Amino acid sequence: MLFHGKARMPAPEQALPGRMEPMGVPSGHYVMGTTLCPPFPVGLELALFGLGCFWGAERRYWQCPGVFSTAAGYAAGHTPNPTYEEVCTGLTGHNEVVRVVFDPAEVSYGELLRVFWESHDPTQGMRQGNDAGTQYRSGIYCYTDEQRRLAEETRAVYQKRLNTAGYGEITTEILSAPTFYYAESYHQQYLAKNPQGYCGLGGTGVSCRDGQAGLAMGQT
Hints:
Layout: E1 45-51, H1 54-62, E2 67-75, H2 84-88, E3 95-102, H3 109-119, E4 127-128, E5 131-132, E6 138-142, H4 145-164, E7 173-176, E8 181-182, H5 190-193
Parallel strand pairs: 6-7
Antiparallel strand pairs: 1-3, 1-6, 2-3, 2-8, 4-5
């Protein structure tokens, strides 16, 4: 039975039980040829974002210079090792996310945040465009205190810009990074394997930049 309150997070006692076995993961990134699984090279860092359907979100990040690898998955819910079908019921509480492995010497976390804010509409609550449900909510999941600081700082700056453009309040959740569960193999780098596939990602058109001067926020 489908969960008819997919616009609401389920309570832990409502969540599907899941399983102990993790999802199988491809040996390499379809586009970049790098590994999807740790251990990653020394000096690289992790970032985790939810900004709608993970197909388009992952593509945005593998196109960023300085990104070593990306993976589509599920996070911030209750069910261990969920399947896509389970997530779609609304009974796991998970968000569709992309985990980004990046080299901070080549791309800053602030730049990754810029891509995040500009690539979707963070004011839509439990949806993104025509995709509705808890799995499409906007979220930044932080691995360090510095990531949280930058996420909150850029949210405040971007809120002012959205208000000026006539948008409402940002609904993005900013949390400490929860357990990341890999999505099924066919979801990994989906739009590279299926170039004509669906991408529901669409931004507001509100920029994070000040003219040509570079990033207006999150420069560290």
